[in-house]
Amino acid sequence: MANRDNPLACTDEPHREWQFPDRTRSVPRLSAVSHGVCVAAGEAARTAFLAPSWGALPAHARADLLHRLGDVLVAHTEELALLETRANGKPLTATRGEVGALARWNRYFAAVAETMEDVSRPLSGTARALITLEPLGVVAALTPFNGALSPGSWKLDPALAAGNTVILKPPRAPASSVRLAELALEAGFPPGVIGVVIGGAVEGRRLGARAAERMKQYVCEAGGKSAHIVFADGDLDAAIVAARQGAFSAAGQTCVAGSRILVLSEVYEELLRRYGEAVGRLRVGDPRDPRTHVGPVASAAALERIEGYVDDALAKGARAVTGGKRATVAAPAEAGFWYEPTVLADATPDLAVCREEVFGPVVTVHPFDTEDEAVALANSVEYGLAAGFRPPRCGACAPGGATAGGGRGLGEHLPAAALERAVRRLQTVRPGPGERRRGRRRVPPTKSVITEHGTPAEPFGD
After folding, report:
1. What angle do CA 222, 168, 414 make, to 5 degrees?
2. Rounded to the nearest 10 degrees, what angle do helices 92-115 and 77-88 cross at?
3. Per-residue confidence band for 426, with pLDDT thresholds at 50, 70 and 90
4. What is this structure's pTM?
5. So what's the pLDDT on residue 393?
């Protein structure tokens, strides 16, 4: 069984080794849990849901537990951050910040738990209807390899606030999720309210089909190919800071990474040159080193996939403004899964690197002549997730305005206005600030617009 002292990674392939992204340590892999273990986990969660120690707990008591969990997480920041860094290669400075965000989410949903209200409405002169918010029961939450804790919290906290029990299924390096469940017990959550099972990868589309067959509610956070659009009337310095942050945080292993930069033709060459220079200054290295900007990617398979996308693009006429190959890093982690932060120009929009989610430190830069052309380019891929504009085009955010694909813009990834196109895609995403309160129940699609004024904070430095 996985525990905090032995952060084991589990896939469908038993008796092999998994290595931390910087290859400083290898650990045995576990095989995926059996069907029987999953059934037992579900039964335990169901038992906890029905038990008076949780099922009869009033909302204010659930809120107290969430507050306590937030306090415990803060007290264990360094431990949890290191577990996440070891699992996915993010710099330790970033994972520390993520743990702090977890605590804020706990406290936010503690407030949500205390403010959920029943609604009474008249039906006729003699009858009234009482509408109550009821928990669903057992919620299963699958988290991605690029961050078990943060995506896990987005799913865990609203479910707990509403009175559900939760089974977490973390990725191949489950130590942080296991430790989170242990810390929840320390905070006072009853046994079984938060459970963890280990398994291999599963495709969201296939899982959704299975859920539909069983009439189960299902939400999937799928991939993205977000566009960051730069016009001539904005601050290019601010655009470069935002686009560099949006593309290379977590080595580009984020669902809303701004992996395509669309630039008005009259400033294209200047921005390309300056952006390439800024990206070239990013330091690749040991994620535990506070001077590191970009850590390793998560696995050997990820490194090979990224390399394949770039090599294919270069072979078909693209050019590397900076990067374009595996990175060399000094000992003790010189053999890790390192790839240079890469900026590609002259990549035609039909290339795989421009259309598919690379999920690595790779950006393509494209010129456009008109706003309509920029919107068409932004919407030319099958993904819809986030979009950034420099400077913000707030008028286009209004209902019915011409918009670029992508449901949300997240300030920490694409620090600009987010625009939404009226299209249907197999895509649901991390809730924006206006949506978190409704995380406890299914809601119609919404749009979050974040407008940033002035130059964004520089997360990397030089």
Report:
1. 35
2. 120
3. very low
4. 0.80
5. 57
Q: How many domains does the chain fold into?
A: 2
398: left (phi over 0), alpha (psi -120 to 50) or beta: beta
Give the tokens for residue 228.
């960051």
- Spatial neighbors of 189 by CB under 8 A, at least 6 apart, are 54, 65, 69, 160
- Residues tagged active-site: 221, 255
Phi and psi dihedrals of 18, rounded to 5?
-120, 140
Q: Are 146 and 14 in the same domain?
A: yes
What residues contact residue 206 under an 8 Å CB cut-off, 6+ apart? none
What CATH number is attached to the domain comprising 110?
3.40.605.10
Which tokens belong to 126? Answer: 């003699």
- Whether the Cβ atoms of residue 341 and residue 284 lie closer than 8 Å to each other: yes
Q: Where in the sequence is the domain holding 115, given as residue range(s)?
A: 9-213
Residue given tokens 């039909």 in the structure block: 350
195, 237: one domain:
no
428-460 pLDDT per residue, tens: 333 333 334 444 444 334 555 566 666 677 777
**CA distance linking residue 281 with residue 292, whole number of Å:** 11
Q: Is residue 460 part of a domain?
A: no
In sequence order, what are the beta bridge partners of 324? Answer: none
- Cα(170)–Cα(193) distance, integer angstroms: 16
Output the six-digit token pair for 40: 């037992």
Phi and psi torsions of 403, nearest 5°: -135, 160
Residues 44 and 87 in one domain: yes
Helix H segments across 194-326? Answer: 204-213, 236-248, 265-280, 300-315
Round to whole Å and give the CA distance between 292 and 17.
27
Instruction: Indicate the Cα dihedral angle 22, 353, 432, 71, nearest 10°.
Output: 0
Residue 24 has pLDDT above 60, yes or no: no
DSSP assignments along 110-176, one per residue? HHHHHH---EEEE-SSS-EEEE-----SEEEEE--TT-SHHHHHHHHHHHHHTT-EEEEE--S--HH
Length of the chain: 462
